[in-house]
Amino acid sequence: MKLQLLLLWKEQTCLNPHFIENMKKVATYNQFYSTDKERSGYVKKLFILLSVLLLITVISACQSNSNQESSFDGSQQGDWPSLSLDEMIERADLIAFVKVKDTKKQKKENQLNVQISTLEVIETIYGSVSGEIKLDQTNDFVKQRKEYLVFLEKDKNGYHYSLSPSSVIQEQDGKYISDKLGSKGAYTKAEVRELILK
């Protein structure tokens, strides 16, 4: 009986010209997309999908590249090291008593919110600056009309940046309060000068 079924199947399939023709159709692209319109629709969808994937890849590569590029431009202020007074003195391009004249909030190309402040230099302890300077900050913003003791770095564009959160010390009742200055805690301008110039 099995032999008869096998022979019958062989007769119906292998010898049948329609079966051979149908097998050819199954193996071709035309079986799935019988009209040119269906084929072109498939090709268009495939092209759009590949284009979108390529665009996403290019955009993400450009963004990661721009995040890695910049040199010190104030945008790196988020992960500051904790600096001692001696380290701040060593790294600073400018140490001065300043008064904040003006502040302006801006958004940089890298989407960071920054504050550009105009500082009037009251007295320079170290560095060769007089008059006004621009301070670029991404956080811990200085306040208008307040006085500060600052330890700053200067970039090639002429802007100044904080060395660390403790490098901008606000004056309070004629004293500068910071554990970075020493164990006493609160210092007058004369005492700060003496500590830095020793």
Helices and strands: which structural class?
Answer: alpha+beta
Proportion in β-strands:
25-35%
The number of helical segments is 5
End-to-end separation: 112 Å
Silhouette: elongated
CATH fold call of the largest domain? OB fold (Dihydrolipoamide Acetyltransferase, E2P)
Quick one: CATH class of the largest domain?
Mainly Beta
- Determine Rg (CA atoms, Å): 36 Å
Provide the CATH architecture of the largest domain.
Beta Barrel
The percent range for helix content is 25-40%
Protein name: Lipoprotein
Keywords:
alpha+beta, OB fold (Dihydrolipoamide Acetyltransferase, E2P), 2 domains, 5 helices, 36% helix
Give a structural overview.
The structure is a single chain. Helices cover 36% and strands 28% of the residues. With 198 residues, the protein is of the alpha+beta class. It has two domains: 2-67; 81-197, OB fold (Dihydrolipoamide Acetyltransferase, E2P) (Beta Barrel), CATH 2.40.50. Strands 1, 2, 3, 4, 5, 6, 7 and 8 form an eight-stranded antiparallel β-sheet that branches. The chain is elongated. 17% of the residues are buried. Residues 66-77 have low confidence and may be disordered. It comes from Gracilibacillus caseinilyticus.
